[in-house]
Amino acid sequence: MNELSDAEIIEQFDSFDKDKYSLIVSSADKDANPLTNYSPFVKLEGDYYICVSSNLPHYTNMIETKKAHILIIEDEATANHIYARNRLYFSAECSPESDSEKIFKLFDERYGDKLSFLRDMKDFRVIRLVPQEKSLVLGFGAAYKMDKEGNFASKSIGHK
């Protein structure tokens, strides 16, 4: 991969998730037992939103610990190399979203009526995921970091 300028790297961070429709979310319970699942998502002003059943352990984990780890990854069917899939990952602060209707409208815009039934299910809640430091990998040895304020932090090109 050609070395990218700082401006190009920031653009990659901003645009990476535009053609991705689900994310992988990992959480842990109060005893640090890990749990991983996936969810469709929407993004608003840099924050991610998912809709999760309050009956599931993920919801409890995220509400109690206020933490999750997120992975958005290139589809393996389109990746140049299975081991070097492009990916964005970050730790997130989690909180229940108070304006669920606004977020459900974003889900409608992004997914059409495929997810509209969730708004009528009483156990589903919208969780806001606020990214902390983010990492973007664009192939072998092409790893970049962005701080939680959205400033480009570092890059690593190549392997030893």
UniProtKB/TrEMBL annotation:
Transmembrane segments: none annotated. Pfam families: PNPOx_N. SUPFAM superfamilies: FMN-binding split barrel. Gene3D superfamilies: Electron Transport, Fmn-binding Protein, Chain A. Residues 11-133 form the Pyridoxamine 5'-phosphate oxidase N-terminal domain. This is HugZ family protein. It comes from Sulfurimonas aquatica.
